[in-house]
Amino acid sequence: MDQLRTLFEAIGLTNVETFIASGNVVFDSKSKNVQALERKIEKHLEAELGYPVVTFVRSVAEVHEIAGYMPFTNVNLESESIYIGFLNIDLTRQTIERLESCSTDVDVFHLRGRELFWLCRTRMSDSKFFGPLLEKTLGTRTTLRNSNTVKRIAAKYP
């Protein structure tokens, strides 16, 4: 994680911190253009690491909003999990309908803006949507975080 922090600092980002060992990086930037910032980070990481790294940038305010949003009711967090998928784009109505039509008793999907909320009533690795099928259905890349992780990030950065 120290190397990751150094890579972000090398492109002029400040107050860089990594949050748990899952690729979450918190930083300050003067850039107001999220897409340009994502491209800049991706280009730098690929040049330094030798492979493409898709990035998903959210402001602290957005993380707080995402952490506080709960599209599902009657969730038993001892046997069920909520994952949040971060996207780089707003999905088309057609893509949203396609994904929501895939909801079952085991996997329930809800899209809001550039976030996918996934109620998984089994182990994620046992879901048929774990891995490539989810991104194929979305038609774009995503990175998933357990909702507890997103809440912990929001709590650490008020």
Task: Give a concise summary.
This protein is an alpha+beta fold and 158 residues long. The protein is built from 6 helices and 6 strands.
SSE series: HEEHHEHEEHEH
Mean pLDDT value = 93
Number of discrete helical segments: 6
Estimated helix fraction: 25-40%
Main beta sheet, described?
A: 4 strands, antiparallel
Oligomer: single chain
Rg result: 16 Å
Class from helix and strand fractions:
alpha+beta
Annotation, overall tally of beta strands: 6
- Overall geometric form: globular
Q: Strand order, biggest sheet? A: 4-5-3-6
* Beta-strand residue percentage: 15-25%
Which regions contain 5 or more consecutive residues with pLDDT less than 50? none
Amino-to-carboxy terminus distance: 22 Å
Strands, helices and their partners?
Layout: H1 2-9, E1 14-19, E2 24-28, H2 34-49, H3 60-68, E3 81-86, H4 93-101, E4 107-112, E5 115-120, H5 132-138, E6 143-146, H6 147-156
Antiparallel strand pairs: 1-2, 3-5, 3-6, 4-5
Protein described:
Helix 3 crosses helix 6 (147-156). The strands form two sheets. A four-stranded antiparallel beta sheet has the order 4-5-3-6. The protein has helices at residues 2-9, 34-49, 60-68, 93-101, 132-138, 147-156, and strands at residues 14-19, 24-28, 81-86, 107-112, 115-120, 143-146. The protein contains six helices and six strands; from the N terminus they run αββααβαββαβα. The protein starts with a helix and ends with a helix. It is 37% helix and 21% strand. Strand 4 (107-112) and strand 5 (115-120) form a beta hairpin. By secondary structure, the protein is α+β, with helices and mostly antiparallel strands.
